[in-house]
Design goal:
nucleus; alpha/beta; elongated; 46% helix; 312 residues; 13 helices; six-stranded mixed beta sheet; UTP23_sensor
Length: 312
């Protein structure tokens, strides 16, 4: 059952490509109602078409056929129950007069499904019937899904050859529509672009009549307004920063000279660069400082020197 359900879903998607939309319109004949009195017909429809969005319909002529079966010496006992079920469905007005003899279901169904006789299911009906002759005739009407009941199982027929050919043609047109441009579309594009070469067979007389006016109009069409973005400047991320001119020595702020002091010469104003001292220079400087400290410590105090001078 799962495999059959997948096949039916795929088949209905193919019919949707040809214009079928939900809710599906189910056109039911009287023989289906008589044969499925013990079955849940709506559940079978929903399970077969894999949707609950359905609209079961029955024509007036089919209702009359059920009333005829319920009367007369050859009365069908199942016709009364079939009539009660048919009243729950939507009535499809077929347009056949009530005071006249009702048409046979075959003729009524053909007039409803194919009203103009062109072999086209204009209103996209899904036909449910037990009549094999009617199903054979409707296979030539495209696109028409056909359903019938066999041993309490609802069966959806495969797509007919006529419908399959129409579907292949529609797919081919849809696939090649964006690749191969139609001549009318190319002509409209040339007219929109302002190209005067719509037809190659245009004579020299038409070209002479256009004259300077045609040339001016083309020049105006071709001209486009340019936006004024201002002067072009280099990309600031792609340029190097300008270097400042080197003066040899950085200028330091001058301090005001004290009263009575002479201003230092210009050479002394320039700050000398500090040089790194090597390890030997550092060692010599340390030893010189140590000698100076020893000399200071070994020198006699000034009071002792004064006493020695007095004694002498």
């Amino acid at each position: 059952m799962g495999k059959r359900t997948k096949q039916y879903k795929k088949l209905m998607r193919s019919f949707e490509f040809l214009g079928f939309r939900q809710p599906y319109q189910l056109l039911i004949t009287s023989d289906v109602l008589v044969d499925t009195l013990k079955l849940d017909l709506l559940h079978l429809f929903e399970k077969t078409l894999a949707t609950k969005d359905l609209k079961p319909m029955i024509t007036q002529c089919c209702i009359r056929a059920l009333y005829q079966q319920n009367t007369g010496p050859n009365r069908n006992p199942a016709a009364a129950a079939a009539i009660e079920r048919a009243k729950t469905f939507e009535r499809r007005r077929c347009g056949h007069m009530m005071d006249q003899d009702p048409l046979r279901e075959f003729e009524c169904m053909m007039s409803v499904v194919d009203p103009k006789g062109k072999g086209e299911n204009k209103f996209r009906y899904v036909v449910v019937t037990q009549d094999e002759a009617l199903r054979e005739r409707l296979r030539s009407v495209v696109p028409t899904p056909l359903m019938y009941v066999r041993r309490s199982v609802m069966i959806l027929e495969p797509m007919s050859e006529a419908s399959a050919r129409v579907r292949e043609r529609e797919e081919r047109v849809k696939f090649t529509g964006g690749i191969i441009r139609q001549p009318q579309a190319q002509k409209r594009k040339r007219e929109h672009d302002g190209d005067g070469s719509d037809d190659d067979s245009s004579g020299s007389e038409d070209e002479g009549k256009q004259g300077a006016e045609g040339g001016e109009s083309k020049a105006k069409k071709k001209k486009k307004k340019k936006r004024n973005y201002g002067p072009k400047q280099p990309n600031p991320l792609a340029t190097k920063k300008a270097k400042k001119p080197s003066t040899g020595a950085e200028q330091l702020p001058r301090k005001p000279a004290a009263a009575g002091e002479a201003e230092p010469p210009a050479e002394a104003k320039a700050k000398r660069k500090r040089c790194k001292k090597s390890k030997t220079d550092a060692g010599e400087a340390v030893s010189n400082e140590a000698k100076q400290e020893d000399a200071v410590l070994s020198a006699p105090a000034p009071a002792a020197v004064a006493i020695a001078d007095a004694k002498s």
